[in-house]
Amino acid sequence: MSDSTFPEAPTASACPACDAAPMTRRLAASGAREAAAPCALMLSLPGVHCALCITTVEKALAAQPGVRSARVNLTLRRATVEADPGVRAATLVAAVNAVGYEAHEMDASALSTTATDRQGRELLMRLAVAGFAAMNVMLLSVAVWSGAADATRDLFHWISGAIAIPAVAFAGQPFYRSAWSALRHGRLNMDVPITLAILLALGTSLYETAHSGEHAYFDAAISLTFFLLAGRYLDHRTRAIARSAAEELAALEVARAERIGESGDETVDVAKLRPGDIIRVRPGGRMPVDGVIREGTSELDRSLLTGETLPVFAEAGRVVSAGEVNLTGPLVVEVTAAGRDSSLHRMADLVAMAESTRNRYTSLADRAAGLYAPGVHLLSLVAGVGWYLATGDARLAVNIAAAVLIITCPCALGLAVPAVTTAASGRLFKRGMLIKSGTALERLAEIDMVIFDKTGTLTLGTPELDAPDSHARADLALAAGLAAASSHPLSRALAEAAERAGIAPEAVTEIAEVPGYGTEGQWNGRRVRLGRAAWVGAEPGDRTAAWLGVEGRLPVCFTFADRLRPGAEEAVRGLRAIGLEVALISGDAAPAVGAFAARLGIEDVTAEALPEEKARRVADLAAAGRRVLMVGDGLNDTAALAAAHASLSPASALDAARVASDIVLLGEDIAPVASAVTTARSAVHRIRENFTIATVYNLVAVPIAIAGFATPLAAALAMSASSITVSLNSLRLK
Predict the structure, then answer these.
(1) Active site residue: 107, 219, 235, 453, which one?
(2) Superfamily of domain 463-563 in the CATH hierarchy
(3) What are the E-state strand segments in 218-354?
(4) Is residue 453 among the annotated active site residues?
């Protein structure tokens, strides 16, 4: 049997990188002639999770020619590389991939440079100032309570004021700014009564001190500020500070492209490309534009955009989209849309619109504030005016008004939510889930339906050989020998299956990878091929498969299935057990999705869904009154994640998907999703209990304050007791 037994296909070098070498050398040479000023490149690293990952990636990047420094930020999962102008991001991506980590180029100019935790540091600093001042004022108050009188008492009061007034003025600014913003827009929030209580306590204390009064309430003002700042800081710590998912998507758009001009190839900003321009996309590179392939054959990884499990064949005439990854062969592409007109940028716009919709959700605390603030102000005003009309004593009326405002416990209500969410977040973190949004638990408790993506979510996104024991060991050994020379997902799965079975790969010589088709070589004097059915003379089937062709023999078929994520079956069962409807929506082909759904017992199934269709399905359900939890991992899921009532992504998801999500699953096991819903429902129950505690407290304490039996100091002590009660009740969640 001659070589002509197999259908012919375009040939290529065994190493795709060799095709890029001449261009690399030209770029390096031109870079050497440029100024020595380094350029900054940024890579997204979705898979890094520990110190070893940082060391491995940094060493791999630093070893590349022209790289001056490389730093990995574990929190942001991002690497910043300082390199010579001739260094290409694709080379750095390949270096990171070679050590086992996924990497994507990012556009640094599309990212915000604002410090991510500035608000947290500011709150912590103000909390420290309030705490230090409160301790000192309390020490002085003890002296007054112990019997200091006349001039000594007045001196201690003035010293307390000198400590408390600047401390409260500085530490309470988050409340003052929020209250002023609310009043300026004609509304009330929780910070309005807080600010009034603090100012009234300080004003009353200054008046009493100036008139040698027996009681001053500087300690009440600073203690109130300290407790409220503690609640605000707890609230801040329950959420991860992250940029918009739309911003992350924009940063993943390729910043530069190789344009083919009359004088040769040149590297230009993607923003400068126009429809009709011709560009070259190297193997391993991400497609920078929407376009049509004019030359070359390859395979495209579209999983992040469409959810398709396996690479798709690409040849002249095929339409390509920004964000797809070119796997095996160089392509020449004619631009049809670039920059803001590309499909990737349109997806970013979808995400931005979805996020703005979800951000209109009103938390339990905000709803409570809407009812609480007007009532508190009215009670305080009525008490003050009533006592003044009854006694004519303005000093007594102001004291009682201040006591009413303080004793109505804005602190307990301020702690009601953050104390619970902090306890719930800690509980979920121990189970492998990270809460990112301040209102995530409340929204998660309200869901009545769960929609799963398939690839990378309920599966690991990696193919697995079906029934390896059913294949002859000799066939599997020969296939493994060819697969060893390829990075194609099916080739890797074959090699892994052979290794697990203890089968050594056959020695195949003259191996070459033919972009878009497979690998071929010589074995015992015969031509052998591993790849597409038509390439080896076989008829394609409806299953994901790779075919082994040997001269003189019939082709052998190896079929594959996507590997199930640990805990997928338990997650679906657990969600149904707590009364939730479960659906599956995927961009993958209908046969693969249908078989997978049947395996998990999911009846509501949608296949071959585009990103816009996923987001539209979620929006339609929301319009019908459903509250959806979306679970996904790819760019094609990002708009749906942002549009859903609540959302969850695995840690292996792309940065943009993780940022759009409320919850990140830290491990591979997805079974804890059901327990997350149960914990969220329990947390909301505790929050409502805290509101009840605060309300009952107010019903008892407010009449006492209005009757004039509580000084502002006694009101502050009662307020502290209610705050402690709320905090202890929150800890019961654990």
Answers:
(1) 453
(2) Calcium-transporting ATPase, cytoplasmic domain N (3.40.1110.10)
(3) 256-261, 264-269, 278-281, 290-295, 298-301, 312-314, 319-320, 325-326, 331-337
(4) yes
